[in-house]
Each structure stands twice: as C-alpha cells, then as structure tokens.
Design goal:
Blueprint (H helix, E strand, L loop, with lengths): L1 H5 L3 H31 L4 H34 L5 H23 L6 H19 L5 H21 L4 H81 L4 H28 L3 H14 L3 E5 L8 H20 L5 E9 L2 E9 L13 H11 L3 E8 L2 E9 L5 H5 L4
Parallel strand pairs: 1-2
Antiparallel strand pairs: 2-3, 3-5, 4-5
Helix pairs in contact: 2-3, 2-5, 2-7, 3-4, 3-5, 3-7, 4-5, 4-6, 5-7, 6-7, 7-8, 9-10, 10-11
Length: 412
C-alpha cells in the first residue's frame, strides 16, 4: 500500500482521492434509500414488490453510475468521447426509480408523504452525478427545471397535496445543486490540478532547454567567425598551391594558428560552462524551482569568500540537486543551506515529495559524478532519505587549497 500510494505524485494522489470519493457516493445514496423505505413502506404485497424493485434499481444505478463517472471524468479532464449511451441508461434508470416512488405514493404503498420526499433525492442523485459532467451548465439548468416540473406534475397527478408537489420541486433543485457542487466541481478541480502539474513540468523542461540554447549560442558566437575564416583561407591556400605559389604555406600557417586559437576559445567556453559559480547557481536554483511551483528557501549563512575550487564543486552540487528535485519526486518545497566553519563548507539540499531514490547511484549517474568532483577537492557527499517523504543531499568540502583544475574536470 505504501508503494502504491507513495510512488504517486501529488496530482495523482489527489486524482485518486477524488475518484474514490465520487465512486463511493452513489453506493451511499443507495444505502440511504433503505431507511425511509423500511420505515414508510406498507406491508401490502404489491408495495413490498415495488420496494424490492426499487432497491434492485438502486444497485443497477450504482453500477451504471460508476461507469459513467469514470468515462465522464475522462471526457471532462482528458477530452475523451462523452459516454452518452451510458448516460442515457442512467437517465432511464433514474426516471424509472422516480416513477416507482410516485407509484408507491399513488397506490398508498408509502404511508407518509414526507417519506416520498426523503426517498426522491436518493433516486435522483445517482442519475445527476452520472450525467452532470457531460453537458453545458445551460442545458443542465434547463434539464433540472424540466425534471422538477415532471416530478411535481407526477406527484400532483397522484392526488398528493400542494405541499408534497412543492417538496418534489425543492428536492429536484437540491439534487441539481448538490451534483454541481460535488461531481461537476470535482471534475473541474481535477482538470485544473492536472493542468498545473503539466505546466510545472513544462517550466522545468523550458529551464533546461534555455540553458542548452545559451550554451549553443555561446559556442556559435565563438566558432562561427573562426570557422568561416578557416574555410576561406583553406580555399585560398588550395588555389595558391595549384599555381605553385609559395604564399600557400603562409596561408596554411595562418589556418593552423586560427584553429589553435579556436580550440583555446572553445575550451574557455566549456570551462566557463563547467565552472559553476556558486552564488549564480544558488540564484538560478531559486528561479528555476520557483518557476516550477516549488517553494525554495536559500540560506547562505554569513558571507565568506570561498576558494574558487570549492565554489565550483559546490555550484555543481546545487545544479545537480536542483535537476534531481525537478526530475524526481513531486516536491512542494526545497531548502538549500550553506554553512562554513571549522575548515569545512557544508551544503545541504533538502526537499519533500521524494520518491524512493537510492543513494547508491550507478556509475556515470549524477550523484556518482558529484562524488568524483568532490573527491577531487577532498570533499564527501551523502544522499538519502532524511524522513518519510524527505530527501537530503549533504556535501562537505574542506576550505583549503582546493585544486581548481581537478574540480573543474575540464578536458577536450
């Protein structure tokens, strides 16, 4: 049960809760028929037979309602085809149940008119819950008024008093309002939750895509002009070589120089990309997580200048931890704390909504790469569950002579 529930996202948990609640309501409605029916039904054999038929119809209504609710939610939330055929069956069963109640009232099978008013909601609510996600509010309003008129007319035709007819109208309008506040509003709420969940996922993907575009733009700016010059001078050198001109060697020497310069510039771009700046990474984490709808708290502690190698290593920890929060689990809050003291810089990243993530990552994974970077500067990394539904990543780096080159791990 823990795995069945714990591995679901917050949106999936809410979706499951709302669905189970809606599926149970029709059965509660059918149980509600028993009390007034058992108390108000006469002992006449015909009335008893009609009462049993009403109970059988209530069970059938519940079965059809669960199918309609499931298909109706798929229609309202996901845009699937509307289950009009099942809804028609639900309407027919609801009309038949209301007709049996009116018949019991007309034949004297129900001793007290107030019992009729008590039973009508249970007969109509299941039908209303089954169909109120499939049409517009205008049609639902018109349909409710028509149903109220039919119920009032049927009760009046049985010779019931004006008070009972008015009570029937009030029951139908109450049923319509209740169905709107439960079924229709629940479906709307589920649709909004899934839309927000998808928006957060899109925001996380856009943040990653934006970073990729930035790197591609920087690389293009550096290499575009140099490659164009290399191509031009190489073509010129070919032409000069075909004519036996000695200037061809000079052109190729310039090509070699430009190529070496381009290699150096590319290394600088990659180094700048890999050399994570800790303050920039902290602010970037706040922005990305906030854009994804995650409450992010950054606690830097007292300002203290850290060596470049330590900043780079911890900046990579922040970057990788932020990626894990976005991609794994379903976090609602994330806390990043940086403390220094006793010759150590300690970075703690903690988030809720964590799935069952193993700290023993496979070689080549993000955590394994972080451990390699921290080992290069004499640091350590611990990652794992800190409490139920909470994941904590702790990086400790000595604040002394952190070898920058090893921390960067740059190589082309």
């Amino acid at each position: 049960m823990k795995g069945f529930w714990g591995k679901r996202s917050q949106a999936a948990k809410l979706d499951l809760y709302m669905r189970v609640t809606l599926y149970l309501l029709p059965w509660l409605m059918s149980i509600g028929v028993l009390t007034p029916l058992s108390q108000g039904l006469s002992r006449d054999p015909g009335a008893v037979a009609l009462g049993r038929g009403l109970l059988a119809l209530s069970v059938a209504q519940c079965v059809v309602a669960m199918h309609c609710l499931r298909r109706g939610l798929a229609h309202y939330v996901d845009g699937a085809p509307a289950p009009w055929r099942s809804a028609s069956v639900a309407l027919a069963l609801g009309g038949l149940s209301a007709g049996l109640i009116v018949t019991l009232q007309a034949t004297g099978g129900i001793k007290d008119g107030s019992v009729t008013v008590q039973m009508l909601p249970y007969a109509l609510l299941t039908t209303a819950m089954s169909t109120f996600m499939l049409s517009t509010l205008r049609c639902l309003l018109i349909g409710s008024l028509v149903a109220a008129a039919l119920v009032a007319g049927a009760l009046a035709a049985t010779g019931a008093g004006t008070g009972l007819a008015v009570g029937g109208v009030a029951v139908v309008l109450f049923v319509a309002l209740f169905a709107l506040l439960t079924t229709r509003s629940s479906a709307w709420f589920m649709a909004v939750i899934w839309e927000l969940d998808q928006a957060r996922d899109v925001a996380a993907r856009l943040a990653v895509a934006e970073e990729r575009l930035r790197f591609g733009r920087d690389l293009h700016d550096v290499m575009g002009r140099n490659l164009a010059v290399i191509a031009l001078k190489s073509e010129l050198a070919v032409q000069l070589a075909r004519r036996g001109r000695p200037e061809a060697a000079e052109q190729m020497a310039e090509v070699q120089h430009i190529a070496q310069e381009s290699q150096r510039e590319v290394r600088e771009v990659v180094r700048g990309y890999r050399d994570a700046d800790l303050p920039a990474e902290l602010e970037g984490a706040r922005g990305v997580l906030s854009a994804a709808g995650i409450d992010c708290l950054i606690d830097r502690g007292p300002d203290e200048e850290l060596p470049a190698g330590v900043q780079s290593a911890l900046g990579w920890v922040v970057r990788e931890a932020t990626t894990n929060v976005l991609r794994h689990g379903d976090a609602r809050r994330c806390t990043v704390r940086l403390t220094t003291g006793g010759g150590l810089a300690v970075l703690v990243v903690e988030n809720d909504g964590a799935a069952e993530v193993s700290a023993a990552s496979a070689p080549g994974s993000g955590l394994a790469g972080l451990r390699e970077r921290l080992t290069a500067v004499g640091g350590t990394l611990r990652a794992g569950p800190a409490a139920p539904d909470v994941f904590r990543l702790t990086a400790e780096v000595p604040v002394a002579e952190a070898p920058v080159a090893k921390a960067l791990g740059v190589g082309l």
